[in-house]
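Much of what follows relies on a compact textual record of a protein's fold. Here is one such record, which you should read through line by line:
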Amino acid sequence: MWEEKSCSFCNHIKNAKKAREKEDALTHRERVVYTKYQRKERGQTTSTDMAHNAALSASATKCTSQMWRAALKKALDANKSLPNAKYIQVATTQANASTNDQDDDGGFPAIRTVVFRGFLDRDPTKVTFVTDKRSQKVGDFAVNNKCEICWYFPKSREQFRLRGFAHVITNETTDEIDMKDRSISWKKMRPGARGQFAWPEPGQPRLPEHEEAYDVDRLIEDEDEYENMWPKEKVLENFCLVTVDVNRIDHLKLKGNKRYLYSRQRKSEEETRASSDDEDEKNEWIVCELCP
């Protein structure tokens, strides 16, 4: 009995020593972040966090979504001559996990470049892009639909970070409005781009039998042939429309060293019911100028 207690006590001492050694190895900055993380996990808020949030609230002013959308449109117009202005980076948290920690991708951030497909016609605060139903990000969104978009415009030297919640519209979606949005997005795509959703599953090993699917791009030169193969009226089942409901925008202007943070403040259910269908009537936005 004594040996068991002694062994348990020794293990406790060893674990405590390892924890101290790990914490001592942290740099000062890492220790601050680590401490804030621990307090956040316990539901505690530091006085610094409270002061920071209070300062943001005090300096914030009310606005509408039109304010940040106008800034983004201005950047798009200023950079429209650049082909890469239409590309955005989308960050998610990987969902898959394994028993081997070394090979476990679960919890790691994943980022990729996608083509910006415009704002949703019926809600201009929602950013859209398309993806394959079999892609990794669709699985990520199924577990955690929080994401962040990073958009840099070289010509005007501006960066927009848009945070929000992704909604994936697939061939199995039952909402009629969502399915209409998906169909509209499909029709807007070039016929050749539609054909990519008939390719083999993304991320799988490339095999000789897959080459025929990719050869179509080289063999077909006439746009009408593409249209006949992948018509506007027939949406392929692997095609997905992703809409991101943006609720925060961090706008950095390197020219002039300016930075603005836009945040959406949702109204209560009663206020929302009393408001019109206009997005700015349903939500309140605030903007605060930050140090760059």
Residues 2-24 form the longest helix (23 residues). The two ends are 62 Å apart (CA to CA).
